[in-house]
Amino acid sequence: MGIVEEAHNVRVVGSGQQVLVLGHGFGTDQSVWKHLVPHLVDDYRVILYDNMGAGTTNPEYFDFERYSTLEGYAYDLLAILEVLHVQSCIFVDHSMSAMIGAIAAVTRPDLFTKLIMIAASPRFLNDVDYYGGFEQEDVEQLFEAIQSNYKAWCSGFASLVVGRDMDSVAIQEFSRTLFNMRPDISLSVAQTIFQSDIRQILRLITVPCHILQSVKDLAVPMVVTEYLHQNLGGKSIVEVMSSDGYLPQLSSPDIVNLVLLKHIRYDIMA
Fold first, then answer.
1. Which residue out of 188, 217, 236, 243 is catalytically annotated?
2. Would you tell me which of 158, 212, 215, 218 could form a disulfide with 174, CB atoms 3.0–4.6 Å apart?
């Protein structure tokens, strides 16, 4: 195993000809896809990896300057595809990985047959004529909470965004993976995400995009999903799932798996 694969805990499973890559969101790792992977391995070659900074990665590898923008993560994704000799793939992504995939697809559109995005937002902060769902004051309070009592913040944040009671397995799992992140790295990643803005490149994304959204998601309002759909440069389609919360693949896997499998198997009609 090479340096890139080791650093990102790359795993390749399945026996199909078509390559499918799974990218996780903030505060999680590749284990977030555990309910989906068994449905894929018979038909696809599935690549799983961890974004740098996830609790499962070596914190010594985290370069605060490189990962101060989402481009750093996009270059990691492209490096993984290169070392695995991937010439074409479907990229299924969640949260921050949706925008990472978008940036990578602008750089190397030839590598992606389509992007399947869950809870994708090109900008979280409100702006003139744009509603992202958060004011600057909101995110500053979030950053302060991370710094003041990380363990308490993990528990509260997980409950808030997953949208279930504290005893739910999804909240417990998200709390665990959040807490596994080193606090200063978690803060840095959160700052990168909440201060990012990739609206200016949306028109450059020509790869077909399947945009999946929970009916209720505190992190990504429905108007953001519609904005994304209207401003992408290529074909796109939106499906609102009857799930709720930030992590539907953990909290409502029976619903989400069916939707994901449908969008993996079928292309957008012209």
1. 217
2. 158
Q: What is the mean pLDDT of the chain?
A: 95
68 phi and psi, to 5 degrees? -80, -10
| Separation of alpha carbons 45 and 37, rounded Å | 10
Catalytic pick among 95, 186, 214, 252: 95
Q: Which two tokens stand for residue 258?
A: 């069916």
CA distance 172 to 83: 34
Predicted confidence (pLDDT) per residue in 105-162, tens digit? 999 999 999 999 999 999 999 999 999 999 999 999 999 999 999 999 998 999 888 8
> Please, are residues 240 and 248 in contact by the beta-carbon 8 Å criterion?
no
Residue whose C-alpha is closest to residue 101's, from 83, 80, 84: 80
Q: How far is CA 96 from the centre of its chain?
A: 4
β-pairing verdict for 112-118 and 209-216: parallel
Mention every residue, 6+ apart, whose C-beta is less than 8 A from residue 14.
Answer: 20, 40, 41, 42, 43, 44, 45, 46
pLDDT over 70 (residue 166): no
Report the alpha-carbon distance of residue 11 to residue 47 in Å, rounded. Answer: 6
**95 labelled catalytic:** yes
20 touches 35 (CB < 8 A): no
Give the C-alpha separation, 52 to 22, whole Å.
14
Nearest-Å Rg of the Cα atoms of the chain is: 17
